[in-house]
Amino acid sequence: MIVAAGATGGPVVSSAYPEWIATYMLEQNNGYYPLPVSMSNMLAYLFPATAQAYWDEVLEHAFAANQQRLGSAKLGLPTALVALIMFVLDLLCSAGLVLFALANAKLLAALTAVAVVAWARRVAQ
Predict the structure, then answer these.
(1) How confident is the model at residue 97 (pLDDT cuts 50, 70, 90)?
(2) What local confidence, expressed as pLDDT, does residue 63 receive?
(3) Membrane-spanning regions, if any (predicted)?
(4) Range of the domain at 98
């Protein structure tokens, strides 16, 4: 457990989860997906700098803008259904991370060069 406190006020339990989903992830999850491992967690572990850039540039703004809707959408839903929704969100976020990583200009140039060389070798045979 991580506890954080500001200059004034008492300490609170710190969470790595946004406010709209923290209660579910910390208290109601009961071992349902995505704990202990998810596709997003795995990709963030393997590519931490890219995952942080993706969060900073894309996801943080999207989740912040929709926090109220996301929080109210999960109210009253059974835990198993929330777990299914989390699975779908995890897949979408993971696919987005892959696309975000591939949108890098240097990587696109490298992939294009590899494709051109492969095509040239195929034509030469």
Answers:
(1) very high
(2) 77
(3) 75-101, 107-124
(4) 3-124
Q: Give residue 99's identity as a one-letter amino acid code.
A: L
Q: Are 94 and 39 in contact (CB under 8 A)?
A: yes
Q: Is the Cα dihedral 93, 34, 61, 74 positive or negative?
A: positive
Return the structure tokens found at 33.
């997906």
Count other C-beta atoms under 10 Å from residue 81's C-beta: 11
Question: What's at 33, amino acid-wise?
Answer: Y
| Residue 20 Cα distances to 26, 43, 82, 100, 103, angstroms | 12, 22, 12, 24, 29
Say which amino acid occupies 39. Answer: M
Report the number of distinct structural domains present in the chain. Answer: 1
Higher pLDDT, 62 or 18: 62
